[in-house]
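Task: complex structure prediction.
Instruction: return structure tokens for all chains below.
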Amino acid sequence: MKEMVCIVCPNGCLLHIDTDGNDLKISGQKCKKGLAFAKTEMTAPMRTVCSTVKTAFKDVPVLPVRTDREIPKEKIFSVMAALNSFVLQERCGIGEVLIEKICGTDADIIATSNILKE
Amino acid sequence: MKIKKLKNKLKKSFPAFDVREENNCRIVTGESDNWNDIINACSMCVSKDKNVHVVNDIRYTGKAEEPMRTPVEQDSFLEGKEPDVLVIGGGISGATILRELSKWKVDALLVEKESDLAMHASGRNDGEIHPGVDLAKGSLKQHYVLLGNRLFPDLSDKLDVPFDRCGQYACFTQGALIGFVGLYALKRKYIDGCSDTKIISGRTLRQKEPNSNPDFKFALYNPSAGCICPYGLTIACAENAVQNGAAVSLNTVVTGMTVENGKITAVQTNRGTLHPKIVINAAGVFAEEIAKMANDRFYSIHPRRGTNSILDRKAGRLMNGIASVKVLELHSGHTKGGGLLHTVHGNILAGPDAVETNERENFATTPESINTVFTKQKVTVPDLTERDIITYFTGVRAPDFEEDFIIENGRNTKNLIHCAAIQSPGLTTAPAVAKDVARMAIDILQAQKLVLRNDRFKSERKAPPRLAEMSVAKRNRLIKENPDYGQIVCRCEEISKGEIIDALNAPICVPTVDGVKKRVRPGMGRCQGGFCSPLVAQIIAEHQGIPLEQVTKAGEKAFLLFGETKGGDAQ
Amino acid sequence: MKQYDVTVIGGGPAGLAAAVEAHKNGAKVLLVEREARLGGILKQCIHDGFGLVRFGEKLTGPEYAQRFMQEFKDLQIEASTLTFVTKIERSSEGFLLTLVNREGLSKILSQTIILATGCRERTAKQVFIHGTRPAGVFTAGTAQNFVNLCGCMPTKKCVILGSGDIGLIMARRLTLEGAQVLGVYEIQPTPSGLTRNIHQCLYDYDIPLHLSHTVTRVFGHDRLTGVEVAQVDDNKRPIEETKQFIECDALILSVGLIPENEIAENLGIQTDPHTKGPFCDQNLQTLHDGIFSCGNALHVNDLVDYVSESGETAGRNAAKWKRFNRSFASIEPSDGISYVVPQRINVADENMNTILYFRSAKVFDKVTLQILINEKCVFEKKYNHLRPPEMERLPFDFTAFGLKNTDTVKLLIKEDAQ
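Output:
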């Protein structure tokens, strides 16, 4: 049996996972999100990466960004490296895509602040 | 006491030590790993003859002191300069002396090894302007404290440094002592010249200080006591001196001297070798080192640590003046056990304690110091609580074993003046001492050449405006002239961007977070810079035209940041 | 002189929600913000996890703030940024506020004030850390500002003291940016931050969490060179033999947040020693008529969603505010509860529908929360877990109970018989 804490929401449910052959028996979750979390966490854990990128603008040296969806956990540091080598040259708004399909994942890097448009 | 008798007495208590007398010095020798033994032995050898000083040559085999901290700079900025007067040390002594010298047409230069003025004892004390009630006639301390105290209203006014003559109370719970303390007060008042001394009743005390302990039966009161911001005054004096033509070189450490025929002919620093006509030793805890370099060591400094706590302004109501509980006890050493003081900025300051130490630059605080002070001062004001503490700091005093000042010309070296062993009440005495020291320097110079008064001397210096304390009309006018005065950066102390820029444009610019903090107070409040330190750093970077990561807390080595998070290139 | 029905002080999530809600309820609103941009601390909270309760999505701080800022802008509510409230006086007409900004000083008149000033971080000296005073001691929020807004690294190798949420978030953030986080030290035997943050911020990156440990001393004259850590005994006193030196270049502190209430204190508004925020009634009006409090200035919330909710409550009620005599029953935290907000119910108000926010004093499993009126239990709710880092929210309508101003309401925890 394995225990893990669901990180989907602040409830932080303690999940119990029994592996029975290929079947996973999961308990402890307050909602079905916990079920889905435990399944991916057991097979291919996924995370959202939130960081910043350097900009060409003096008043806003860095702009907050994130992946628009979760990416495989083991790719976190490759994504960080890619973000570190990127310099934003144009003023973009919140939600705009800065990098598509980062590091070969399905995720785009989007701006999470509107500061450059204000 | 004859030296032979002293030798025996010393041997009895400390068999490992010896003492001999030569050239008006009592040189104590031996070896010990116990610092307190060394202090006690040397104190035991103090002579009644004021001209004779104890020199501590006992080798301390305990944990060695770290080497003196020195600046990183290495350049030739001062190479070959020939100032008339070189002042070593940018504390209150050096700064007041420099200001006095700037009243004359002399080329005066002050060197300070730290990145700012008032970085040692002058920036790490309680800021009390003493009445001198604890001192009996006969010492330099007592002579100068009476003179110095009187100079403060005018000096603070001219230099635009807030000064509050808030009065001092020594409070007693033992009513039976009133007769004895009353006699003491009369002696101080009429014989020693501390003329404002009086006894007040417990009731009067509580009218003046409603939060003082209801058990106090009476108090010794000196209305002439006051408080001032000690580093604010030091900076103001140095700035005023610079405005009047003197020079200050920070980050400059004296590393050696060349002495020929009883005269200093060269002074080596990390920024070049200079050739001053006169050297003034105001080097605080390092005064003995400077004396040694100048071949004129006839006294020893024994560092004494003290810790003060600063309380939130919301606790400011606890005390309007300066007070401490007094318990009649055999005077043990020189521990004053501290007191409570309402600062000019509205905080309460508690402390300091007094602990002998071999480390001149160890400013680390310990919980014990805070406990000592609070245990005692909770008797003074029962509502006092550690929960109101917003910060605490340690300073190291620089007394000699005679526990008096040394203000005299060099004994072996002719062009040297010592302003050494300046401890409490050194802040109070400084303006009066400075007048005499400057006079001594001018006298030496005048023997060599004609020295004229600086007829363009301006005694006034303006501090950056304090917008929050101004009338609406004045504040509005200043903001209209300079909108930066309307942009609040430090919310706790209500300091504007304009005031911070003023601090950076002052005659002595110290573009560090602490430098700005000492001058205009952003970060002095309850959040201790949590919100404003990034903003202050940004303003400094912008003003100095440097990248943010080059802004430091204090001095080159106290860097805040490790460069940018994003290189912008593949890592 | 400009006149307003509601003046909101603070343009973070609480203030934005309060201003929007007050406006929607017909009030003429002014929002005063000290900084150049609205959004408050959310501007630098670039991690995700905000808004799950409210929007059902995982947003980052700036994204969460943007939703309110957009609505605020769309409703054309008046805001005065880079503006500081320097003085508040009472007059027969209402509150006279003196504002200062780059244009100068100005006075406005407002019928009500909403304090949405957020909170500040406890500092190293407030947790009695001793030693030297080098560069390199940062509160987690200051470090976050440097990294996320200034784009600069405050450390390469650090120790974090305190397991508050910002500390945990910064442990991950600094690790992502290439710093080495040697460990998180927590004086309490249980973490202070949310469990999910312990997992996704520490365990995901193999950062050790040392419970019942603290930092006792700081070393270094110029830049920090190391810290001394020690295990603590049951009375939180460091155990001498466990003292250990750790070489690092920074100490990051996440040792608690304190509601920012300088304005409330200056007005003589009574504050609750448990929350450090003002005492309030169900409408989030303080004991000072016409002054409301919300968000982290009222009490430190665990989630921004609740901050916004309390802002809305304050905004709505400030808009509807009329002077009338209030009369209070008190709500008190009892066994197992560390605090409850609001602390008063205005029984003169016909609507006593209340949202109770509370925290447990320690970790509980399988317990029952009881609400007592004059020692009589009127409500029970079972909880599987109660943890101090997690604030609980419980809507409760006192209207039906005919509360009187002599009544005392108590919240307490009953541990179920095993």
